[in-house]
């Protein structure tokens, strides 16, 4: 009985490891490499904009208002 549980547990771990290493996920499995690249570019642009806005707000707070 213990051997069967051990074998099944190792099979589940191996399967999950395989799926993780092959990059297949349930939600994003339909994305093509081109679509993934576009998603990364859009995210990078969004992050850069957020950082620029945060820097502008910090500069406004740091600059004394006369």
| Strand proportion | under 5%
Helix amount: over 70%
> Which regions are unreliable across 5 or more consecutive residues at pLDDT < 50?
none
Largest sheet: none
Q: Rg from C-alpha positions? A: 23 Å
Name the helix and strand elements from N-terminus to C-terminus, one letter apiece: HH
Taking the alpha carbons of the first and last residues, their distance comes to 79 Å
Strands, count: 0
Q: What's the shape?
A: elongated
Number of H/I helices: 2
For the residues shown, what is the average pLDDT?
87
What multimeric state do the chains show?
single chain
- Secondary-structure-based class equals mainly alpha
What does this structure look like?
By secondary structure, the chain is mainly α. The chain has a domain at 32-66. The protein has two helices and no strands. The chain has helices spanning 2-22, 33-62. The radius of gyration is 23 Å and the shape is elongated. It starts with a helix and ends with a helix. The mean pLDDT is 87.
Keywords:
mainly alpha, 66 residues
What's the layout of helices and strands?
Elements: H1 2-22, H2 33-62
Structure summary:
The chain has a domain at 32-66.
